[in-house]
Specification:
The chain is mostly helical. About 85% of the residues lie in helices and about 0% in strands.
């Protein structure tokens, strides 16, 4: 297991795809910060809710693209045929899957730390430039940061699980995009009492996003963990029973 984990971490550090996805997450973070920071009035920026949206803008981009990083870690192996030498070196499929899942956690943490650091720095600079007093406490900021890091790490793990379930890379990417922008958003808008239990909205709750009808951060975290466990279990069964 340790050798396979080192191999997966090496792949994550050296592939251009992961770096490209991180750059996309950074770009989306900057866009979110400037939209939140420049579209409202100074009075609106002085409110706690608006400051949560501004400083937490990095959580959305980090979580979205960390999910793709986890997904690509699996689907790229099937796309390019490298899954065969991987399984020749380590024939226990669950060990390979477990190593990919474990490697996804630090990848998600890196995405979250980079994007949150950027949104905090840019957001605080905008607040200072617009003469808006920071009303969030140190505890609020810590909860926002820790929740976002946890949600992003779980998002990367979910990406690995989805990639193991839908091995075709294009199909897996389209499925995640369709879920994020159609299923998750539409169900939550139409039936919030149901939509808030979906993985995306549970992640938003864990991240501390100030959106009406979301679960509490602790409840959102529990729901997201439950979804992660369920999809990982399905991915393990799929891995055991399918040819490569």
């Amino acid at each position: 297991m340790s050798a396979q984990l080192r191999s997966e971490l090496l792949k994550a550090r050296t592939t251009r795809t992961a770096a490209g996805l991180l750059l996309c997450a950074v770009a989306l973070t900057l866009l979110g910060v400037f939209v939140e920071g420049l579209s409202g009035t100074a009075a609106e920026l002085a409110r706690a809710k608006q400051q949560r949206l501004l400083l937490g803008a990095g959580s959305s981009g980090a979580g979205f693209f960390a999910t793709f990083a986890g997904l690509v870690a699996v689907t790229a192996e099937f796309r390019y045929g490298t899954i065969r030498p991987t399984l020749l070196a380590e024939p226990r499929r669950r060990v390979v899957l477990a190593a990919k899942l474990a490697a996804a956690v630090p990848v998600g943490i890196v995405f979250a730390v980079v994007c949150l650091g950027l949104s905090f720095a840019a957001g605080l600079a905008i607040l200072a430039a617009r003469h808006a007093v920071v009303v969030l406490t140190t505890g609020d900021l810590a909860a926002l940061a820790l929740g976002s890091v946890a949600a992003t790490a779980l998002g990367a793990v979910l990406g690995v699980a989805v990639g193991a379930l839908i091995r075709n890379q294009l199909a897996a990417v389209l499925a995640v995009v369709a879920y994020a922008f159609l299923v998750d958003a539409i169900v939550f808008a139409a039936v919030p009492s149901v939509g808030r239990f979906l993985p995306g909205k549970a992640g938003d709750a864990l991240s501390g996003r100030p959106v009406d009808d979301l679960l509490s951060p602790s409840a959102g975290g529990a729901v997201l963990v439950a979804w992660t466990i369920a999809l990982v279990a399905l991915a393990a069964v799929r891995s055991d029973r399918s040819d490569v």
